[in-house]
Amino acid sequence: MALRVGVTGPTGEIGKAAIAALEEHAGVEAIVGMARRPFDPAAHQWTKTTYRQGDILDRDAVDALVADVDVVVHLAFIIMGTRAESARVNLAGTRNVFEATVAAARPRRLVYTSSVAAYGYHTDNPVPITEDVAPRGSAEHYYSEQKAACEAALTEITSGSDLEVFVLRPCIVAGPHAPALADAMPWNKLPGPVRRISQALPVLRPFPDPGTPLQLVHHDDVAAAIALAVTTRTAPPGAYNIAGDGVVSMSQVGEAFGALPIKVPRAAAVVTSEVLSALPFVPSALEWLHAGRTSVVMDTEKAKSELGWHPRYTSAETLAALASALR
Ligand SMILES: NC(=O)c1ccc[n+]([C@@H]2O[C@H](COP(=O)([O-])OP(=O)(O)OC[C@H]3O[C@@H](n4cnc5c(N)ncnc54)[C@H](OP(=O)(O)O)[C@@H]3O)[C@@H](O)[C@H]2O)c1
């Protein structure tokens, strides 16, 4: 049966790739996207997609989005923001989407993109981590805490309903159309003239590498996983880790962005994280340093064997694709 799919956050890095993948899928008849900014699907040569401006904090707008679709894909989220503002949108808005989907008569499936961050940066996490490990989040990192809270809300809200719930947990997403990783580099926050000088001199872009390995996944591979979760008739609902094969080092990331990698002891990352945790107030942007403390490398075997997902790009190839697009 041809599916109608409602998507929150179609204007984002993952959203645009996901819509493109759904547009290509013969089993998808129509897509309705909703986010806050003005956006024209025709500008992307999309023919199945309509777009409406709306805020996930507005329950009426969410009710209207989910009323007439078979599958709801929830992508809308604030990733880089303040702790308070992101909590407002991510917790209340996500709850709206989950509750509205359960309450509506038509949707039979809900696909939610959680994150590797939902597991939390705990030293007793197994490496690699599988979906059997409960997402505990890390209270000191607002994004991790909110991702774990959203998964808990999802379980609470959908338990007892007939909805098929698919949770995807991607690692850091990158690629030519997902530059957020590069944008987050500290030198990109410098004022224009200083940033231009630092561009010419890698020595002005020191990049600490405490030896924590990173997984990356290409936006098109995440989009393929979303399209599979939307359309599969055989894969069981549940959580799926999503990451490119292999890992990259922080030094490789730094080099890809023209920085000067500097090896630092792992203990330095742990101490930095512990010091930050002890402070009464830490700017939200600095909370991302906690992510460098512990390796959270995911096992993606379940997505491959049960969802039938096969990433086309390794972590290293994803990084190279982003670096090449930046040049
Ligand atoms: N990027 C990654 O590395 C990564 C990794 C793992 C998981 N994820 C998860 O994947 C999902 C999508 O991420 P992304 O990378 O595509 O993020 P993104 O590029 O920041 O896009 C966020 C999307 O959410 C929409 N949005 C934000 N607030 C909204 C609101 N109040 N109402 C309606 N729409 C709203 C934005 O559109 P408007 O601004 O137009 O409203 C945009 O379409 C998120 O749940 C994220 O946590 C991302």
From TrEMBL:
GO-annotated molecular function: aldehyde dehydrogenase (NAD+) activity
Keyword Oxidoreductase appears in the UniProt entry: yes
Keyword set, alphabetical order: Oxidoreductase
Every NAD-dependent epimerase/dehydratase domain range: 7-243
InterPro entries with a match to the protein in the record: Epimerase_deHydtase, NAD(P)-bd_dom_sf, NAD(P)-dependent_oxidoreduct
Gene3D superfamilies associated with the record: NAD(P)-binding Rossmann-like Domain
Pfam families (UniProt xref): Epimerase (PF01370)
EC number: 1.1.1.344
Gene Ontology terms: cellular component: cytoplasm
Name this protein carries in UniProt: Epimerase
Gene source species: Mycolicibacterium obuense
